[in-house]
Amino acid sequence: MRSIRLLAAVVLATCLISSAQAEESYFDLETCSICKNLGAHPELLSAMKWEIHEIENGMLEIVTLPDEMKKTMDQCHAAMMKVVDKLKAGEPATLCQFCQSYGGLEMSGAKTQEIKSAAGYITLVTSDNPEVVKKIHAHAKKTKTEYEKMLAATGK
Fold it and tell me: What region, left, alpha or beta, does residue 5 occupy, with left being phi > 0 and alpha being psi -120 to 50 degrees?
């Protein structure tokens, strides 16, 4: 679940969503208990770059950000992890479609590995189970499509 916060941060970090779009959006920077931590930092969101790539047994995510934004990102990530810990403890939370999908991958048995790099973060989401790999690939495709829509809506 730790990777949920990072991935949400990365995906949402690049674009801002208007209030009108947030309720129906795949990503929700305003009401999602995890993502709103990023929404509180529009400067971080506009500075981050996020890539998602399908790999044979899952997906690879790469988040890069300028040095001056790394401390803010670390703080957002820590705040998001607190929400994940509460979810694990059974506390309710409001989650966007992206976070629900990502959490569903982990509940299906996907393995996540997060690597903090000099440029940002790298996350691997993988499985040896072909059915789970299909779910990971479907999540990656949907996320890429929705991310491109966000970029287009913000003119990026």
Answer: alpha
pTM, entire model: 0.81
Q: What is the DSSP string of 80-122?
A: HHHHHHHHHTT------HHHHHHHHHHHTT-EEEEEE-SSEEE
Read off the tokens for 3. 């990777």
Residue with tokens 């629900």: 100
Alpha carbons 75 and 51: distance in angstroms, whole number: 21
Per-state percent for the chain, helix, strand, coil, to nearest 5: 55, 15, 30
Cα separation, 33 vs 80, in Å, equals 8
pLDDT class of 104 with cuts at 50, 70, 90: very high
